[in-house]
Amino acid sequence: MKKLLVLVASLCLVACKKENTPLNSSQSASFSNSLTINSSISAASSVSVNVKDHGAKGDGATDDTEAIKSALLFAKANGISNIYFPNGTYMVGQTGNGGGIIQLVDGVGMTGDGPSTCHIKLTGGRKNPNPLFYQYYVGTPSISNVVIQGIDFNGNLASQTFDASYQFCTALSINNGKNIEVKNCKFQSFRGDGLLFGDVFEPSLNARIVTGVKVHDCEFYNIYREATMFCCVNGASFYNNNVHGDGYLVGGVDIERHSINEAVLNVTVYDNTFNFGDGYGPVERGGPKVRYRRAVTMGFFYDGYKNGIVDSLSGHHKIYNNKIYQGQIDCWNIVNVSLSGNTFNNTYENIAGVSYLTAPAINVSDNAEATGLINVNADNNVIHSEIGSGITFKNYTKVTANGNTITDTPLDGISILGTSGTFYGNKITDVGTLTAPASGILINGNASGLYIASNTAGNTTAGTNRTTDYVIKIGSANNGAVAPKIVNNKGKNTLKGIVSEYYYQLNYVQASNNTAL
C-alpha cells in the first residue's frame, strides 16, 4: 500500500525527496512547492510521485516501463505535477509502437537527482527502436506545463540494429503544447533526435504547435540526427548546452519548417558549445568520414513557400555567442535572422562528396529560388576556418555583415552572390592559398545598392607567402539598378591591390578612399 503514502487529499503533500527521508520542519510548516534535490537542480517539486512506489527497481536489469507509466498516470489523476526517480538505472524494456514507448502526460514532469546518477535506458537487442517518451496526441492533444530535469536518457545505440534509412529513435517528442522546460539532463546514443518539438504535417495552419520551450544546461552526446529539432514552434530557447560526440546527421540544432501550414518563429540559440572535434559524422552522409558538421541549421524544405514567395511564418531567430568547433551555421530560405558573436574554430578537412554540409562557416543561401529573402545579419562573429569561406550570402537583400573577424579561410573571407546590403568594419586576414589566392570580399551577380565600407583585408606576412590578392574583388557583371558603393577600405600586404573591378564594367562602382595601409 505504498501508493497511499502519496498525498491525494486536500493538503497535496508527499514526502518523496528520497526514500525514507522526511521533509524538514520549514517545508512541513509552509507546504512549500519547491525542493532542492542537489546544487544542480533548482525548484524541483516537493509534491511528487516516487516511481519506486509504483514498482520501479532502478537496478539496471528490471524492466521498469510499466512502473514509469503507472507513476505518470497516478500523478495526473491526483493533480501532482511531477514524478521522481531516485538514483539508479531504470530500464525501458517494452518495444512500444511507431509513436513511441512511454506516453508523456499533460502537466506531469520528471525529475532525477542529476544525469550522472539517474539514468533511463533502453534495453538492447532492438531493430529500429521506437522513440522513448512521446506525446500520444490522439489521446493527449496537448502536453503543457512540464519540467524535465536531472535525468540521463540513453538510447543504448551500440546495442541496437538499424536499417540504413532509420532515424526515428528519439528521446522525447512533443508535437503540441506549451511551457515545456528541459534542463540539467543528458541525452546520449539515440538513432534519431535528442529532443523533437512540433514535427507535424497538418492540413490547416498550426493545428498543432509548441510554444514556450526552454532547453538549457543539458549535454547531448552521440545523437544520430539532431540534438534538438524545432519545427512548428513559436518561442523557443536553447542555451548553455554542450553538443558533441559522433552523429548529427543534420545538425546540432535544426530549426526546420516542413510545410506551408507550420509556423517556425522566434527560436533563440545562445551560449552553447558545439564541439564536433571529439567525434565523426555518420557514414550515411557519404564521402570521407569527417568531424566537420552543422552546429545550427535553419531551413524551409520539402515544397517550400507557396508560389515561391516568402511569407511571415518562418524566421525571427537569434543565434548568438555560441562556441563552435569543426562546425558551421546554415540559413536556408529563412528571413529575419540575427547571427552574432559566434566563434568558429575549424581545421582543414576534405568535405568533398559529403552530404548535408557546405564549406562556409556561415552560409546564408537561397536553395529554392524564393522571392523576398531579406534581413539576415551576420555581425561580430570570429571565424577561423580552414574548410571554406568565412561568410557566404546568396540571393538575399537587406543583409549586413559588420564587425566580423575572419582568418585563414582557403576561399574568400566574405562571398556575396546576387545579394545587397551593408558590409562594414570587417577584418579579414590570410585568406586564400598559395596556389589559389582569394580576396577579402568577393562580389558576383546582380545586386542593387551594395554598401561596402571601412573593411580591412590582407596578409600578415609579406613576400611569397602571401595568399590574399585584393581587399574587394568584383568577379562578374552587375546589372543592379544602383552600383555598389565601395569606400574607405584598407589593405595590407595584398598581392595585387585594394579593389578589383570587373573588366567589362570598369568605373561602374562608386569607389573612393580605398587605400593601402
UniProtKB/TrEMBL annotation:
It holds the Pfam family Pect-lyase_RHGA_epim. Residues 49-194 form the Rhamnogalacturonase A/B/Epimerase-like pectate lyase domain. SMART domains: PbH1. It comes from the Bacteria. InterPro entries: PbH1, Pectin_lyas_fold, Pectin_lyase_fold/virulence, RHGA/B-epi-like_pectate_lyase. This is Rhamnogalacturonase A/B/Epimerase-like pectate lyase domain-containing protein. It comes from Mucilaginibacter ginsenosidivorax.
